[in-house]
Amino acid sequence: MTNELTQLPPPEKNVAAKVLYRMGWGSRKIESWLAIDHSTVIRYAGEEISEDKRQFATEFEAAVQDMRYEGLARIYRRILEIVPKERRLDQLVRAGEYLEGISRKINLGTGV
């Protein structure tokens, strides 16, 4: 999705930057995803989303949330693959700690 985001027209990039920033993403992370300067991200974040772009903002936020859940689902599936084969508690504990760390990063907006 990152490459697709760099191709957004400027008005949509503006909205995407606002949405990601409000979701808790850092300006540097947004900079790398949207290919716009982090200072521009900060400037965009302070602006309101225009009425004609609210639908795009809602759909974009939903798409980002879906990406988060897809990533967590992949991790969960991998845990289920590992646990029956190993049947070792230490493997399960490590997988849980990893999943918990990913969840914290997502909540802080440092990853998707």
User: What is the CA–CA distance across the termini?
Assistant: 10 Å
Number of domains: 1
Kindly estimate the percentage of residues that lie in beta strands according to DSSP. under 5%
DSSP E strands, number: 0
- Given the helix and strand composition, which structural class is it? mainly alpha
3D structure, described in words:
With 112 residues, the protein is mostly helical. The chain has one domain (2-108). Helix content is 78%, strand content 0%. It has helices at residues 2-6, 10-22, 27-34, 38-45, 54-86, 89-108. The longest helix is centred in the middle third of the chain and has 33 residues, at 54-86. It is elongated, with a radius of gyration of 17 Å.
What is the topology?
Layout: H1 2-6, H2 10-22, H3 27-34, H4 38-45, H5 54-86, H6 89-108
Helix pairs in contact: 2-3, 2-4, 2-5, 3-4, 5-6
Structure keywords:
0% strand; 6 helices; mainly alpha
Short description:
This protein is mainly alpha-helical and 112 residues long. The chain has helices spanning 2-6, 10-22, 27-34, 38-45, 54-86, 89-108.
